[in-house]
Structures are given as C-alpha cells and as structure tokens.
Amino acid sequence: MWAITRGGFNQKIFNLPKTLSRPLMATSNVIRVSSPSYSTSSPNHAPFKRVGTHNGSFHCDEALGCFMIRLTDKFSNSEIIRTRDPKVLEGLDAVLDVGGVYDPNHDRYDHHQKGFEEVFGHGFNTKLSSAGLVYKHFGKEIIAKELQLGEDHPDVHRLFLAIYKSFVEAIDAIDNGINQFDTDKPPKYVNNTHLSSRVGRLNLDWTDPDQSPEKENEAFQRAMALAGSEFLESVQFHARSWLPARSIVMECIAERFDIDPSGEIMVLKRFCPWKLHLFELEAELKVEPLIKYVLYEDERGKQWRVQAVSVSPDSFESRKPLPAQWRGLRDDELSKETRISGCVFVHMSGFIGGNQTYEGALVMARTSLKM
Question: Which domain of life does the protein's organism represent (predicted)?
C-alpha cells in the first residue's frame, strides 16, 4: 500500500493485514474494512466518511475503485463497508459496484444495472466497471496531486487519458467480459498473469476451513493493496518517464527536416520510450510524410542504432525495413555490402541496424530510403 502527499507518492509504508487502524467488525451482512493509512493531503480531522461495496467474492474493479476513491480529498479518511444490504448502502457516503445505481452527483458507481452503457469518452468505447467510473470522476484529481498542478493543466489531461488507456481500460473490459480481439476463435494461450487474475486469486480458497467474514475482509484488503500499488506505479511511471519522453519526441519530430530533407528520419537527442508517442504525435501534428527511421545512441555500447518504424504500435511489420541485402550481415561484411564504414549489424527482419558512429547510422538511413 502507498501514501500520497502533496509532494507525490511515497514508498510502501506497511504490510497487510497487521496495520489495520482498528479491528474488523462484522454483523450478519455488513463487514467494515478499516483501511490502512494511505491518504491524500486533506486534513486529518476531515469528517469521517463511509464507502460501500459488496461483500462475498471480489474482483479487481471494486478493489481498485475503493483504493482510488480514498486518494481523493472527499473520501481520504473513509471506511470501507462491505455489504449487500440496501438499507445500509442507502446511508453510505459513496457506493461502488453494488446497489444498481450510477449517479455521480450522489457518489453511486455501480455498472451492473440494466441499461448501463457508460464509457470513458475521449475516443474510448469500452463499457466502464466501478474502477473506470471512479477514475472517470476522480482520476484528474489524483494525477494533479502527483504532478502538483491544477486539474485543468494539459499535462494532467494527457496523463489522465494515457493511464486510462494503458491501465484502467483493461480492468473495465475484463470485468465486463469484453474480448481483447474481435474474433470468436479460442485464444492460442491462456493468460492468468494480468492484474485482474491476480486479484481474483486473493479470494478465499474453497479449501480454507476459515470462511469467516473477517477472513474474507482481510483478503479484500490485500486485493486493494495489490491493485492500488500497481495503479500508483502506473501513475508514477507516466509522470516520471512517459510524459518527459513525449516532450523529447515532439521536439525531435519538429527538427526532422534538419536531419534530412525528406523529413522521414528522426534523431533522438536522448533515448526514451518513443514508439507510442511517435504514432500519437504523427496523428496529432498531421506529420507527412510519415517517419521511416529513428536514430538513437545505444548508451551501453556507445554505438548508434537505426530503427525502422513499425506500421502500428503493436506490429512487427516495418513501414520501410532496412534493405534485404543487408539483413543478417555484420561488421566488415556489412560495411562492404553497404559501402558505409563502421557498420555493426542489421537484424534478419530489417527492423534495426547499427553503426559505430552517428554519421554512419545517418548514411545507413538515408541510403535505405532510396532502396
């Protein structure tokens, strides 16, 4: 589990379940989860609030939703109440994944009711789960605190969309039974390593002799910790790494004609995760012609790489692979074939090659464009 402050996300600060702030309590159908002390920067004396979700078997969406909603000012000191009793749910300050109502004005975030078709928007069409609903309404606040910016800042909005795309949307889709691919064919392999599967395995095993509400509640608390810590890791990555990389790629795209008159060769001044940014920025900036090669320095080997841009972010096919006659060759043999000094290698697929110098790598890219 994690703590949040105005200065950003702190390291893990406790182990579960020993750090419960007060004992677990249960009635016939109400379980109180006294969640550990992760909080926002809101005052410690803020009014105590209660957030409800269902008891029984749990899934990743409500575990993450409960975690996220407690990162907000409004619900930073909230207690998690696990019940299906309508009368109890009615009196709570917020309700997630149960109750049959989606009404953000009253903090009701269920998605199981007939007629529910809410999506995240911004070009995303996946039906939301309780996690997606909480993120839709509170995600910008959480991200703004990490960046120490206002919620209306463009960087907050960029991260808001990027984290939904890379993290939250999959949880929404899995919980709603939406296939990743448009096909009725069975998958070629089973993947039980994703976050939703790992959270699901935290449910009490049927062989466990202790099936008490208290034991179930401890398991849910571990599920919140798992889902929440990975969510915060995603926010940290996007704030620390993804967002700065976008600025670098944008600058390099703007300077592409200084590298080569074709505009089809881009040089990274500093290596960073560039691929997804490149595709998004090409579309956003209406780049024409599309970039074919990206050059960057391999810091470990102090050599330069020429990488062919793929046709799409998840494709192994390149827009213009390095020439077939170069592929699989190395060192002197490759330099002789290319008539370019300092060549190191070209991959068998033609998606990447190397040269000892920047000048040599640039000549490789320029020559490839003409072949």
Answer: Eukaryota
